[in-house]
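Service request form, structural biology core

Requester: graduate student, group of Dr. S.
Request type: structure prediction, single chain
Budget code: on file
Notes: please return the result as structure tokens.

Sequence provided:
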Amino acid sequence: MHLREIQEKREFDLLSPYAVKSKESKGRQFDEPKCDIRTDFQRDRDRILHCKTFRRLKHKTQVFISPEGDHYRTRLTHTLEVAQIARTIARALSLNEDLTEAIALGHDLGHTPFGHSGEQILNEVCPLGFSHSEQSLRVVEFLERNGRGLNLTWEVRDGIINHQTKGRPSTLEGKVVQISDKIAYINHDIDDAIRGKIIRENDLPKDCVEILGNSFSERINTMIRNVIDNSIYQPDIKMRDEVGTMMKKLRSFMFENVYIGSQAKNQEKKAQYIVKQLYYYFIEHPESIPGEFYLHYQSGEETKERIVCDYIAGMTDRYAINKYCEIYVPSSWSIL
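Core staff response, request fulfilled:
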């Protein structure tokens, strides 16, 4: 018996009846031989962790664009915090941790440079629209491995496309990631905003602090415990009573005081201008797009607009800035 088969049997012995067992996965886009050591969900986690798109997240904005200081979250550290929270909840509920972690690590692969600012402007200028959750799915199904994709299981792909509030994940593991994403970004964005002197701890709504806690760690702990207490032995993932209400109130507070119009966003218009100009340039000059993207356009597999979005969405903040300067900023010259 292979190690994988031993682990698959262990899942049936130890996991909740509501957990997804890797042996019962709906399968991959394309059939392939099983691994002797790892379950299918473990392989998916590893494929995401080792892909190029995942590595680029370290140079993509979470909230603060080009902050001075090394301790602000990036899209990569956000992803890791989501994965940690999601695994804690999944373990407590005896759900499939490997599936949960794979979804968490892949949920933001499609994010643009400059965070939601970049996503918003791409959605405005591209007639096809743009959504980072749809782009994350496109990354794993098509863009990685030079157009071959990562060939992930159906359950991981379902969790990725449905991780936003409007999504409806088909698995409890996907629902765990969905709520963990909110727990992570609300709390770490508060932490970063306080560090950046955008808000003070005393500015947080007093009723929220009284219920959720007086510190970053207390608030996360309260939210996680509430999810576990209300979801254990249940076929759903829930955050109920006043804790859920206070989390929503904190989220609204962050939109009013940090996400929209604050000093944290004072570089947003510049960032959006860069993304917009790059989009228009590459629409006019698709031959300037790197080969792996341009070949899909030449073959007629994809529209020009979609390929341009693929290219720009994959950029890091600094790559986008450098590419803009290369195209639009005159360089110095001299006569030898």
